[in-house]
Amino acid sequence: MSSTLNQKLLYDVYEALVFLVETDFDISVEDGFEGNSYWIPTPEEEIDEVDCFGIIEIDVDIPIIQKIYTLSHETGHAIYDMQTKKTLKPSVMQYEKAAWIIGYQYFLSKKYALDEKEYWDLAERCLGLYEHAIRSQE
Ligand SMILES: [Zn+2]
After folding, report:
1. Ligand 1 centroid, distance to 70 Cα (angstroms)
2. For the chain, does the N or the C end have fewer beta carbons within 10 angstroms?
3. What would the pLDDT profile of 35-66 be if each residue is shown by its tens digit?
4. Are 95 and 77 in contact (CB under 8 A)?
5. Quick count: other Cβ atoms within 10 Å of Cβ 64?
6. Residue 46 CB burial class (10 angstroms; 0-12, 13-18, ≥19)
């Protein structure tokens, strides 16, 4: 699917993907109002009490197609944290790249093929911003 689909359909797809992620992984997807999207894992010592592995916040102000791609990326972080983190410790950039790929693969396995070109364009843009932010901290 890509940005060429009509908006109503994209909203339906987004809702379906949110439902999929929430039921598959016991995480909560919520609207974000801080101009950013992110994955907040529940601290390990609190998982028993909270009964949810974490929260994905998706920026309310971005276009619906970007919400879909961003949800894929944040889901990639969630899957990585839940399944891979303990065995492989990545750098920030490796963690960011991996999340784009893992999220894409996950939705593909559920028969949702995101537009490769648009997806990587957004991924490259976000990775570029990260790289820039890291460099300016050095
Ligand atoms: Zn990320």
Report:
1. 9
2. C
3. 999 999 988 888 777 778 899 999 999 999 99
4. yes
5. 15
6. exposed
96 is written with which tokens?
């960011």
Mean pLDDT of the 10-21 span: 97
Compute, in angstroms, the gap from residue 32 CA to the centroid of ligand 1.
15
Instruction: Report CA(29)–ligand 1 centroid distance (Å).
Output: 15
Structure tokens at 77: 């972080």
| Dist. CA 90 → ligand 1 center (Å) | 13
Own/partner contacts of 76-82, CB < 8 Å, gap of 24 or more, are 76/100, 76/101, 76/102, 76/103, 76/104, 76/106, 77/39, 77/103, 78/21, 78/25, 78/27, 78/39, 78/41, 78/53, 78/54, 79/25, 79/103, 79/106, 81/39, 81/41, 81/54, 82/25, 82/53
Is residue 112 a contact partner of residue 83, using CB atoms and an 8 Å limit? no
Alpha carbon distance 47, 40 (integer Å): 12
